[in-house]
Specification:
Elements: H1 8-11, E1 23-26, E2 29-32, E3 38-41, H2 99-116, H3 122-138, H4 142-158, H5 166-180, H6 189-198, H7 205-219, H8 232-240, H9 243-251, H10 256-273, H11 276-279, H12 284-303, H13 311-318, H14 322-335, H15 340-343
Length: 344
């Protein structure tokens, strides 16, 4: 039964038994590129096998679900007709089906995908579809998206009768997920609410906070509080990807990477010097931007150079209002005791 089976890994080392030419794959068969002789069918190894051992050196960030199910979409048991979004069908040999058969399978695929798969989970389907759209707009990775879907499904399964707005719930679950990933997903509450509004949903900061507090009473879980240091990588990225900032760094005689490392170290140092009790309820993202501005002035004083950042340039690069940077810097200079030359 194994005669004629040609593993893909051995195809590179073998040649045509008739003319010695190179072997290629075409329409599910292994053929000779020179004479056209069909050698055998192509047998492709599956990407995953049941009972497969996980490599110990690979990071584990997988959420396991039941067979035939995927975390970030509403999925049913069984397989798709063709690929997920296929509208053109081929047979097992890769040959296109006839027009009449194409029409039949297209109709069957539409009926199966829209009704049988979704069934009574239409609200869940719409919420998860919105999550996929929002994740792309915010450029979030799959781990954050899947963690959001997991939290959403967990809340739905535990308190389905107490949930009235699935879109608002998925927004709060996304907030929980990005808070869990800390600096791996430095997205703010305002940005999440804004993206949901752009997608046509009535989601705002106040409603998300209210829903988060309600969920805490239901499931005992609430989003973690962001710390300013979680936003340091994002603030540095915004500054170092601004053309005017890069030009000023070069004009001050700095190597770009050296300045970035100095700015990171000084920003973390300043944030560590200011206790939470003194920071109060200030926005952690704006606070980090202001700390980066103060750090630049410390670096300039330490190395005897002119500062790179101005309040206007920092505001432009990070999209934070100038008066907010000025207000936060005014509080910082009293706590960290900046020299008088830097305050001017």
């Amino acid at each position: 039964m194994t005669d004629g089976i040609h593993e893909p890994t051995s195809m590179v080392s073998q040649s045509c038994p008739d003319c010695g030419g190179f072997l290629i794959t075409s329409h599910g068969h292994i053929v000779c590129a020179e004479c056209g002789l069909v050698i055998s069918r192509e047998y492709v190894l599956p990407t995953y096998q049941m009972g497969e051992q996980i490599q110990s050196d690979n990071p584990e960030a997988t959420v396991y679900v039941s067979l035939g199910n995927r975390m970030h979409i509403v999925d049913g048991l069984g397989s798709y007709i063709g690929f997920h979004k296929d509208k053109y069908f081929q047979d097992a040999n890769g040959q296109p089906l006839s027009g009449r058969t194409q029409k039949k399978f297209k109709r069957l695929k539409t009926i199966y995908s829209t009704r049988i798969r979704i069934g009574k989970n239409e609200a869940k389907y719409r919420a998860l579809r919105t999550l996929n759209h929002v994740s792309k707009l915010l450029m979030l990775n799959e781990q954050v998206r899947d963690r959001t879907a997991y939290l959403y499904k967990k809340v739905i399964s535990d308190s389905a009768d107490k949930i009235s707005n699935n879109i608002l719930l998925i927004a709060v679950c996304l907030l929980m997920a990005v808070r869990e990933f800390k600096d791996g997903a430095p997205i703010t509450l305002d940005e999440i609410a804004t993206v949901f509004e752009k997608c046509g949903h009535r989601v705002n900061v106040r409603s998300m906070v209210r829903e988060a507090l309600r969920l805490k009473s239901l499931i005992g879980y609430a989003p973690e509080i962001r710390k300013p240091k979680d936003y340091v990588p994002r603030v540095l990225s915004m500054l170092m990807n601004n053309g005017r900032v890069l030009n000023k760094i070069k004009s001050r005689g700095w190597d770009i990477k050296t300045f970035e490392n100095e700015l990171r170290d000084k920003t973390l140092m300043i944030l560590g010097m200011i206790p939470t009790s003194k920071r109060g309820g200030r926005n952690p993202f704006i606070f980090t931007v202001s700390a980066a501005y103060a750090s630049d002035r410390l670096i300039a004083f330490q190395y005897g150079k002119r500062p790179v950042l101005t309040q206007k340039l920092t505001s432009t690069a990070t999209e934070v209002a100038e008066y907010s940077i000025r207000d936060h810097f005014g509080m910082m200079k009293k706590l960290i005791e900046l020299p008088n030359e830097l305050v001017q």
